Amino acid sequence: MHRAGKEEELNIAFWSGQDGCGTTSSMAAIASVCASAWHMKTILLQSRNQKSDLNQKLGTAWRTGTGCSAHQPEAEIQDMPKRGSLVTVRKGRMYYLPQEEYRKKRSYSDAFREGMCRLIRSAEQHSDITFTDCGSGDDALSEEILSRADAVVVNLTQERRNLDNYFQGRHVFGEHVIYLVNAYHPQSAYNRQNLNRIYRLGKEELAVIPHSQFFRHASDNGMTEYFVRRHIRCCGTDRQFYFMQELLHAAALIRRAAGLEIREGAKSR
């Protein structure tokens, strides 16, 4: 993986070893923290192999332009962020590019892979931090995206069989990896302490996003960014306090893994 030498142009890739790990939801939530708590301009992308589309998590309001395709000429791909093909989630802070049709397959054409990589480079040039959702892709395109990311976020569930399947044949990503448990239940036998012990994960390698029926409802209705922004400064008596504290901590670990130290607890102004 390459490492970022400055705050700008960070590239975070989200991936999971199986479908249904909440990869798209967690990426949208982490990006919302970066936009609201740390005032970073974020752009979110998908590699077309994820059934859960970003518009399901972030809504479709304020869309301009005509969409895009990785098969378009390089000049057009480079200009997309300027021409308004992105969906605006929060003006000046957060944008995403719809993945268009779902196309999960074992292999992609060279033209498609090259187009997708150009698209990521273009997004990097126009944002402080770029997020790419690789879904559960096991193909050359996903490998390329993951290999050039500043940090990789591996999404997991708390199911023993799925955990064993992943860690027994652990994918080699390099050192800048965060393992993220979605819909986390602290009462599970596979809670954070036991996951650290059983799978020999360092304290800085493992993050969680707790289960919250309120967050799930917001996420399923295209309101992820609004939910995070509304609760970003909630106090200890708020029923979303534990969820938000863990979400903020997870986002901080991911940014740190990408090479950018931050002061945890920073709030939006």
Question: Can you offer a commentary on this structure?
Answer:
The chain has 269 residues and is α/β, with parallel strands linked by helices. The protein has 10 helices and 8 strands. An 8-stranded mixed sheet has the order 3-4-2-5-1-6-7-8, with helices on both faces. Helix 7 links the parallel strand 7 and strand 8 (206-210). The chain is globular, with a radius of gyration of 17 Å. The relative contact order is 0.21.
Layout: helices, strands, pairs:
Blueprint: E1 10-16, H1 23-37, E2 42-46, H2 54-58, H3 74-83, E3 87-90, E4 94-96, H4 110-125, E5 129-133, H5 140-147, E6 151-156, H6 160-168, E7 177-184, H7 192-198, E8 206-210, H8 213-220, H9 224-231, H10 241-257
Parallel strand pairs: 1-5, 1-6, 2-4, 2-5, 6-7, 7-8
Antiparallel strand pairs: 3-4
Helix pairs in contact: 1-9, 1-10, 3-4
- Our measurement of the CA-to-CA distance between the termini, rounded to an integer number of angstroms, reads 33 Å
Structural class of the secondary structure composition? alpha/beta
Mean pLDDT: 83
Summarize the amount of helix as a percent range.
25-40%
Overall spatial form:
globular
Round the Cα radius of gyration to an integer and report it: 17 Å
SSE ordering? EHEHHEEHEHEHEHEHHH
Sheet having the most strands: 8 strands, mixed
Strand order of the largest sheet: 3-4-2-5-1-6-7-8
Low-confidence stretches: 3-7, 62-78, 265-269
Please count the beta strands (DSSP E, at least 2 residues each): 8
> Total helix count?
10
Strand fraction equals 15-25%
